[in-house]
Amino acid sequence: MYQTGQPQMGQQIMPEPPNNMLSAKDHLYLTDALSWELGAIKMMHHAAMNCTDPEISDYLNQAGQMHQAHYMQLLSHLNPANAANM
């Protein structure tokens, strides 16, 4: 049956999805983004540990901390109930 997109009698239009609803595609994207951030954290840590220049090592550690903050924020989107505990 062809629908015109107009609500029929008794139906309400949802202007936006609920706050706590993630689609399967959203979930997959967040999972990929978490993997990318975790890889970046590991690379920064490895580089900082093998760097002989303390100033560069500090910059690498700061970059690793930034990626860890991004990781934690992405993780909070997957399970908002745990966001308060982080």
Can you describe what's shown?
- The chain has 86 residues and is mainly alpha-helical.
- It has a domain of 55 residues.
- 65% of the residues lie in helices and 0% in strands.
- The protein has three helices and no strands.
- Helix 1 runs antiparallel to helix 2.
- The protein is rod-shaped and about 70 Å long.
- It starts with 23 loop residues before the first helix and ends with a helix.
In a few lines, what is going on in this structure?
The chain contains three helices and no strands.
Provide tags for this entry.
mainly alpha; 86 residues; 3 helices; 65% helix
Report the radius of gyration as a whole number of Å: 21 Å
Query: Roughly what fraction of the amino acids lie in strands?
Result: under 5%
Report the uncertain regions: none
Largest sheet: none
Which percent bin holds the helix content?
Answer: 55-70%
**Oligomeric assembly:** single chain
Spell out the blueprint of helices and strands.
Blueprint: H1 24-50, H2 54-78, H3 80-83
Helix pairs in contact: 1-2
